[in-house]
């Protein structure tokens, strides 16, 4: 069976959607599915408003054989890329995953309307997070939260007073408020901070620690004592290198870390230790969207493997 994924970014680029597609691709290939990933690195379109979109449509039409020869087309967020082809090839099975909202302007009415229309037009849909249904104003066929891999704790060696931030170095990830915390006097002298990511706040981050750029965060997960994730997938990956109890968020309510500024927006800071004794955890929100986003993740009792995630896609495709 031939499947085409359409996505703006793909591995080896680093990010949550990129990793989601990479892991999904690996699981599907094990099950003998033939997956073709088409991303901006294939299309190489000019990043100019409207002109870039016209170029994408032209490239996909020129290479329409990829679509016609596939059994299924699955679009990850970039539904506008495929829109003309939905009408050109109305019988082609096309599915959609919406991974999130635009954090810089999540409530843009036109953007939300586009997503709502796309869900209606496509043959089936997956939403990464139940909260999306509320803000987009639609219902998905399936809700997922990303995959998790368990790792041997024998390979983990924590370094005291080490912080790790993983994600884009941008204000909308909550990084600005984390930097305020680092600039305060509430942290232990000699605290070491690593930043795995890049962005407009790189220079600010370099004042407090080492910026490693977009690279594999695995070695840093293994040694960091405290992780400040920028999103749900970072949180899940960090947990896979820890022995934190699944109900940590609830059982540690009385041990909230009041030393951390309550304005650490949109992030969850947690210590990578076993059990709840001495572990302090606190969630921080800047908007209702961020609040619901983190509350959903923290209430999950079971984290799916990537095999589980691939099975959801197969159910959606009736495979």
Overall pLDDT, averaged?
81
Count of helical stretches: 14
Q: Please count the beta strands (DSSP E, at least 2 residues each).
A: 12
Strand content: 15-25%
The name of the CATH topology of the largest domain is Rossmann fold
Domains counted in the coordinates: how many?
2
Instruction: Label the structural class.
Output: alpha/beta
CATH architecture of the largest domain: 3-Layer(aba) Sandwich
CATH class of the largest domain: Alpha Beta
Order of secondary-structure elements: EHEHHHEHEHEHEEHEHEHEHHEEHH
Cα-atom Rg, whole angstroms? 20 Å
Residue runs with pLDDT of under 50 for 5 or more positions: 243-267, 273-284
Question: Tell me, what's the shape?
Answer: globular
Q: Major sheet, described briefly?
A: 6 strands, parallel
Assign the CATH superfamily of the largest domain: Glycogen Phosphorylase B
Give the N-terminus to C-terminus distance in angstroms.
10 Å
Trace the largest sheet across and list its strands. Answer: 2-1-3-4-5-6
Helix content: 25-40%
Please tell me about this protein's structure:
The chain is α/β, with parallel strands linked by helices and 319 residues long. The chain folds into 2 domains: 159 residues, Glycogen Phosphorylase B (Rossmann fold), CATH 3.40.50; 147 residues, Rossmann fold. The chain has 14 helices and 12 strands. The strands form 2 sheets. A 6-stranded parallel beta sheet has the order 2-1-3-4-5-6, with helices on both faces. It has a 6-stranded mixed beta sheet with strand order 9-8-7-10-11-12. Helix 1 links the parallel strand 1 and strand 2. The longest helix has 15 residues. The radius of gyration is 20 Å and the shape is globular. About 12% of the residues have low confidence.
């Amino acid at each position: 069976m031939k499947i085409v994924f359409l996505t703006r970014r793909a591995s080896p680029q680093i990010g949550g959607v990129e990793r989601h597609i990479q892991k999904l691709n690996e699981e599907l290939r094990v099950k003998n599915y033939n997956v073709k990933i088409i991303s901006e690195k294939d299309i190489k379109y000019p990043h100019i408003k409207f002109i870039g979109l016209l170029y994408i449509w032209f490239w996909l039409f020129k290479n329409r054989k990829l679509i016609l020869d596939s059994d299924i087309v699955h679009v990850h967020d970039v539904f506008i890329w495929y829109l003309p082809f939905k009408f050109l090839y109305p019988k082609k099975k096309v599915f959609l995953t919406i991974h999130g909202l635009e954090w810089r302007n999540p409530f843009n009415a036109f953007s939300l309307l586009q997503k709502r229309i796309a869900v209606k037009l496509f043959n089936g849909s997956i939403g990464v997070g139940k909260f999306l249904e509320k803000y987009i104003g639609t219902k998905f066929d399936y809700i997922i939260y990303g995959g998790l891999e368990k790792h041997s704790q024998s390979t983990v060696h924590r370094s005291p007073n080490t912080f790790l931030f993983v994600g884009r170095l941008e204000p909308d990830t909550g990084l600005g408020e984390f930097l305020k915390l680092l600039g305060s006097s509430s942290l232990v002298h000699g605290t070491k901070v690593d930043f795995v990511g890049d962005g407009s706040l790189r220079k600010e981050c370099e004042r407090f620690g080492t910026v490693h750029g977009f690279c594999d965060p695995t070695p840093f997960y293994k040694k960091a004592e405290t992780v400040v994730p920028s999103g749900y997938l970072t949180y899940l990956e960090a947990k896979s290198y820890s022995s934190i109890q699944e109900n940590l968020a609830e059982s540690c309510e009385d041990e909230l870390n009041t030393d951390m500024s309550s304005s650490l927006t949109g992030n969850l800071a947690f210590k990578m230790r076993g059990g709840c004794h001495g572990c302090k955890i606190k969630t921080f929100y800047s908007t209702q969207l961020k609040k619901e986003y983190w509350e959903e993740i923290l209430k999950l009792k079971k984290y799916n493997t990537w095999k589980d995630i691939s099975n959801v896609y197969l159910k959606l495709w009736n495979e």
